[in-house]
Every structure is written in structure tokens, then in C-alpha cells.
Amino acid sequence: MPKAQKLTLAVLIQAALITTAYASEQSEAKGFVEDAEGSVLFRTGYLSRDKKHGKADTSSAAQTAMVKIESGYTQGLVGFGVGVIGDASFKLGENNHAGNGMIPLHNDGAKDANGHVDAYDHWARGGAIVKARISNTEVRYGTQVLDLPVLASNTARLVPEYFDGVLATSREIKGLELTAGKFTKNQYSDQVTTDGNELDSAVVWGAKYKFNDQLNASYYGTDIKDRLERHYINTNYKQALANNSSLTYDFSGYHTKWDKDANKYLYSQIGSANDSFDNTIFALSTTYNTGPHNVMVAYQQNSGNTGYDYGLGKGVGDGHQTVYLPNSYLSDFIGNDEKSLQLQYSLDFANYGVPGLTWTTAFVYGWDIKATDTKGTMISDNEQEREFFNQVKYTVQSGFAKDSSLRLRHSYYRASDNYQSNYIGDTNEWRIWLDIPVKFF
């Protein structure tokens, strides 16, 4: 195990044993039943990609119910609890031209009359957890939805991506949160097999610290067996201005080194089994807020001998969500050596008499991309891509439908000719989500 992992695990154990000056979460436990929570989220989802240059379009519509039931913790020095999470879904319409991460496809290769792989009509997934807590340190084992910069569940599709394993989180020191865990199964959003991505093991560790109300910093790492080692850092500072305005400065970045054992899965076309591949990507952003208005400018840059790759090949443990960077919409602007610049504007209509309604628009331009042909031969080092993004979301503020939301998202994406086959290719995308949450208890 790397030294960083050993150190983090040791600190977690140490933190669980020390006495702190603020309240213990476990000491406030009301009981296994008393603190129990249960809910279901009904989601109707539609995702359509209008492809250009003769590429096949993809379009999917489906309905799901995502259930989460979790007990509280038993009282005492050490508290114990259990929980279940899962989803049951069915497609709306034929959807045999799926392939955008929404609906599972049959793995027998059967196709319809139009040459589309058959999609599932209905499917269900899920799992259970057991959990324990002492003081402010919690350990969870089982099926989980992760929100870690180096190992994150894709939640941008119909249903979430699941990981199976153990995760420990400690908040014994005020302002400091430590994390360590190991996961051995990975199920993408459009997979019905529990370990559909064939993850061997992914060890994660990290820490985030809130210095004060203005300054936060974090570091996370992961070691995915026979695939990669990845590190992430972030610093965020908020500067108060006159008239309740503010400026927020954010720096984030990843460094990834791929294991040579992964070459046959990832880079068989552009390198030999003994080649070494690595990538560093960072982003700087500044956001100005005044009342209902937010304006962000962000710069992002890649370096290394490959782009920021994720979700490529079996066993990587990444459903394309582990990219906690600002220039991330339909495209993530992660090409080899790519530089990108973004201008984003968002508006909260609450100040105009429509609470719950928000609008975000952004334009991102990327340049200096190195592109290769299908054999991996470098053909250009000055390719470009661009995306115009718009999203409108309305959340019901009160009444029987409180917290229900409707989200409409559109991306207009275009790339230069030599970058068409390397990445997404020219696309017009629509995403429409209708979410209706229901709380049982």
C-alpha cells in the first residue's frame, strides 16, 4: 500500500480515539428506528443526441423509481445501522438506438431490423449497506453512491452508478474531514450486472479542511489496480465585496499516471506495452456574484502525453463523472495538450418573483488539441472544439409537489475536422429530467 494511504488510515484511526472540543454525532443518536429515513425518487428521463456527418443518433426515454431506506444508529459508544438502495426502471418507446448511458443493452449482440442493438424493456438494480459509528467517525460497507473527486458515481443519467466496498469518513477535528476506502465492484448507470465494469480494486484516500468561512482546501488520491494512480487538489477562496457581492477564486487539478498493465486496454493503438502514459490537468476560475447574478470565467489546461482519460476499458472504475473541473458539460475539454476558456452566466429568478427558477448559459472554447488517426498516428496539434450550453431548471417551492423539479438542458457542440473521430463529434444534445421525490418517513 502506498505511504500516503497508510498515513491516511493511521490518521483516521488516531482521530477516532482523540477527544475533541465539539459534539459527538454518535452521542446524539436517537436510535435505530427513531432516526430512520426512507424515500423514493420518481424520475422521467429523456436524452437525445443528434449526431452529424453520418454518425448514428442516440435517443432514450425511460422511467425509474430510485429507493433509499436507511436506519438510524443504535445508541451507545458504538452505533450500528443498515440500509438499502436501488432502482427499478422501464423504457418508454422502442429505444433500440440507445447507447448514451441511459438504458442497458443486451450483451448477446442481437439487433433489430434497423441494425440497433436490443435494449432492455425493464430492469432493476441495487444493494445493501451495514454501517457503524463511533464519535464522529463512520464506516459504511456495501453498495454506495460515491461523491469523491477521484472516484465519483455518474448521477447524470437515469439512475446512479454504484460501487461496492468500504468507506470510512472521520470528522473528529473541527473543520477537517478525512476519507479512506476500498471498492471492488463497479456498476455503470446502464449496466445490470453488479460488477459490469469488472473493477479489481480501487483504494481511495483524502482530506478536506475548512480554514474559515472564506477558505477551503482538499486533496484526494486513488490507486486503481493495474490501471492508474490519480491525485486531485483543490483550493477555494471567497472574497466578500460591498453590497453583498463577492468574488470566488478556485483552483483544481488532477495528475494521473497509467499503469503499464493498462496499455493493452487503453493505448494499444498509440503505444507499445512498455510505454508510459501520464496526464496533468488544472483549472483556474473566478466567479463574481451580485444578487441573483453569477458570472464565471475559467481557464483549463492539459499537459502530458495523453489527455485526461476516464472510463476507458474495463476495470477503470469511472463512469465519466470523475472530472471535478469547471469546463465540464457535454464535452469536458480534456484533449491531449488542450487549453480551454469558459464564460458562464447564471441567473436566479427568485428576485424577479419566480422562486425556484434558474438559468445557466455558458460558452467554452478549446484549442491546441493533439489529434491522432485510427492507428494512433499524430495528424495535427492545433485542433479545436467548442460548446454552447444552456440549462433551465424549476423546483417547486411549496405544496404537495414541494421539491419536484423539471430540468431542460441543451448543448450545441462542434469540433474541427481532425477531432471528429477522436472524441464526441459534432452533436446537438437535449436532456430533460422530471424528478418527483416522495418521503416515506
Structural write-up:
The protein is mainly beta and 441 residues long. The protein has helices spanning 3-17, 263-266; strands at residues 37-51, 58-70, 78-91, 122-134, 137-144, 147-148, 151-152, 162-170, 176-187, 202-210, 215-224, 228-240, 246-258, 278-290, 293-304, 339-348, 357-372, 378-395, 405-415, 427-439. The chain has an 18-stranded antiparallel barrel. The longest helix has 15 residues, at 3-17. The radius of gyration is 23 Å and the shape is globular. The two termini are 42 Å apart. The model has no long low-confidence stretch (mean pLDDT 90).
**Rg over alpha carbons:** 23 Å
User: What percentage of residues falls in helices of 4 or more residues?
Assistant: under 10%
Tell me the structural class.
mainly beta
Note the overall shape: globular
List how many beta strands DSSP finds: 20
Portion in beta strands = over 45%
Topology:
Elements: H1 3-17, E1 37-51, E2 58-70, E3 78-91, E4 122-134, E5 137-144, E6 147-148, E7 151-152, E8 162-170, E9 176-187, E10 202-210, E11 215-224, E12 228-240, E13 246-258, H2 263-266, E14 278-290, E15 293-304, E16 339-348, E17 357-372, E18 378-395, E19 405-415, E20 427-439
Antiparallel strand pairs: 1-2, 1-20, 2-3, 3-4, 4-5, 5-8, 6-7, 8-9, 9-10, 10-11, 11-12, 12-13, 13-14, 14-15, 15-16, 16-17, 17-18, 18-19, 19-20
